TrEMBL record:
It is a peripheral membrane protein. Signal peptide: none annotated. Gene3D superfamilies: P-loop containing nucleotide triphosphate hydrolases. One of its GO terms (cellular component) is plasma membrane. Keywords: Amino-acid transport, ATP-binding, Cell membrane, Membrane, Nucleotide-binding, Transport. SMART domains: AAA (SM00382). It is found in: Cell membrane. SUPFAM superfamilies: P-loop containing nucleoside triphosphate hydrolases. InterPro entries: AAA+_ATPase, ABC_ATPase_HisP-typ, ABC_transporter-like_ATP-bd, ABC_transporter-like_CS, MetN_ABC_transporter-like, P-loop_NTPase. This is Amino acid ABC transporter ATP-binding protein, PAAT family. The keyword Membrane applies. PROSITE patterns: ABC_TRANSPORTER_1, ABC_TRANSPORTER_2. CDD domains: ABC_HisP_GlnQ.
Length: 259
């Protein structure tokens, strides 16, 4: 089952009642291997969407297309009403609007935590230092690392480094955040603090699309859960439905293995 996609044509003047992310008929192949076989998905502002599914089903590829990291073969993606899959779009503006956090946080090891958070707005957006510093400090306080600004990444736990990566992404003031298995590489004891940070962000109204293997977390945080398998959306719905009463045999099989 794919989502029913309301066929709104954008005039370039996007309003928040229209989908903030609108994906239509998306296909992506690597060579002759078709990874995404026609994805339709729209996300409203403030919505929290969790993507679950077996390894290799195309989850990472899907969310990487949303911020332009992976070019697509067919279909369209609109971000705030702007077509980003056409030949002409402003990559920089897109990166500013769409924040992304990966499993590997890749902080700069020889820069302090504060410098890591400040770097993109300073170098990419050329924003004034004092303004960026103030914002970076507020974000570090928000992810509960206000006392670590002068530390180096290597002095922090994995969970703390991942929270720095989240603050770093937020420092670009994105309108939406994408998370790709951000806790998968963490020690179990630091997973929770990262999930708490994401939960708080969602509660503040941030639009979030998350790929996660943390089913309890997905159930708790998601407005909608999307189950993908072999490049297709098999089933989508509120968490109570997907986890409590899955309709498709593939969803049931996947959940029986991970729950
Ligand atoms: P998931 O995140 O659900 O595990 P991915 O989107 O990472 O799935 O990958 C889906 C499939 O596409 C996998 O079989 C993977 O090997 C393949 N794939 C992903 N990225 C590339 C790439 N850059 N080149 C070739 N194959 C790729
Ligand atoms: Mg993946």
């Amino acid at each position: 089952m794919s989502e029913v996609n309301v066929n709104i044509e954008y005039s370039g003047s996007w309003t928040p009642d229209q989908p903030i992310i609108d994906i239509r008929g998306l296909h992506k192949s690597f060579g002759s291997f078709e990874v995404l076989k026609g994805i339709d998905l729209s996300v409203q502002q403030g919505e929290v969407v969790c993507i679950i599914g077996p390894s290799g089903s195309g989850k990472s590829t899907l969310i990487r297309t949303i911020n332009g990291l992976t070019p697509v073969n067919a279909g369209e993606i609109f971000i705030e009403g702007q077509l980003i899959t056409g030949p002409k779009f402003d990559k920089l503006a897109l990166r500013r609007k769409v924040g992304m956090v990966f499993q590997q946080y890749n902080l700069f090891p020889h820069r302090t935590v504060l410098d890591n958070v400040m770097m993109a707005p300073r170098l990419v957006l050329k924003e004034p230092k004092s303004e960026v510093r103030e914002r970076a400090r507020a974000l570090l306080a928000k992810v509960r690392l206000g006392d670590k600004e002068n530390h180096y990444p290597g002095e922090l736990s994995g969970g703390q480094q991942q929270r720095v990566a989240i603050a770093r992404s937020l420092c670009m003031r994105p309108d939406m955040m994408l998370f790709d298995e951000v806790t998968a590489a963490l020690d179990p004891e630091t997973v929770k603090e990262v999930l708490t940070t994401i939960k708080e962000l969602a509660a503040d109204g941030m639009t979030c699309v998350l790929v996660t293997h943390e089913m309890g977390f997905a159930r708790e945080i998601a407005d909608r859960v999307i189950f993908t398998d072999a490049g297709r959306i098999v089933e989508a719905g509120p968490p109570a439905q997907i986890f409590g009463d899955p309709q498709d045999a593939r969803t049931r099989e996947f959940l029986s293995q991970v729950l």
